[in-house]
Specification:
- This protein is an alpha+beta fold.
- It has 2 domains: 2-44; 51-161, Outer Surface Protein A, domain 3.
- The chain has helices at 2-31, 35-44, and strands spanning 51-55, 61-67, 73-78, 84-90, 99-104, 110-117, 122-129, 132-139, 146-151, 157-161.
- A 10-stranded antiparallel beta sheet has the order 1-2-3-4-5-6-7-8-9-10, with no helix packed on it.
- The protein is flat and about 55 Å long.
């Protein structure tokens, strides 16, 4: 009886493994489409446009993916009054196409800029007030040393540490 019992368990185990293997193989052949339809579907998923706008329920433009005036890609965000409040994009080719994020005040002037700068793409943060630089923090593109420079209301620069 023990031999029959163990033979039954072993037979059931082997049968279960074979059945599971066949089931998995058959299930894959039904759920994985062939490569030809996948390639055709991917080419239909491409959207080409020079401008894409995101509108709110009232029909106002709230975001826009477009090429900026200097022919660089940018994503603009607008508040409910239509003011440009944030831009994520690349600077012009003349400035090395450095990536940037610009936060604008209610008058649409840059209030904060985070960007990469120089030939080594060092990070820089510029804080502004009424369109004028007030504090600049980052890494010096030549030495890679950190710096912090502040500007008084009259535009006079003072280095807190490092050099910029």
């Amino acid at each position: 009886m023990t031999n029959t019992f163990y033979a039954g368990i072993l037979g059931g185990l082997i049968g279960g493994i074979v059945a599971a293997s066949l089931l998995i193989h058959l299930d894959r052949s039904r759920t994985i489409p062939s490569r030809a339809p996948t390639v055709a579907m991917r080419s239909q998923d491409v959207v080409s446009a020079s401008r894409i706008r995101l509108m709110d329920a009232g029909g106002k433009v709230r975001a826009e993916l477009t090429m900026s005036a200097d022919n660089s890609p940018a994503l603009f965000f607008y508040d409910s009054a239509g003011r440009n409040r944030m831009v994520m994009g690349l600077y012009s080719p003349a400035e090395g196409e450095a990536p940037s994020v610009v936060l604008n005040d209610a008058e649409k002037r840059a209030a904060g800029i985070f960007r990469l700068f120089g030939s080594r793409d060092t990070p820089v943060i510029v804080l502004k007030n009424q369109g004028r630089d007030r504090s600049v923090y980052g890494l010096n593109p030549t030495s890679m040393d950190p710096f912090l420079a502040n500007y008084a209301g009259d535009g006079k620069k003072s280095d807190v540490f490092g050099s910029y």
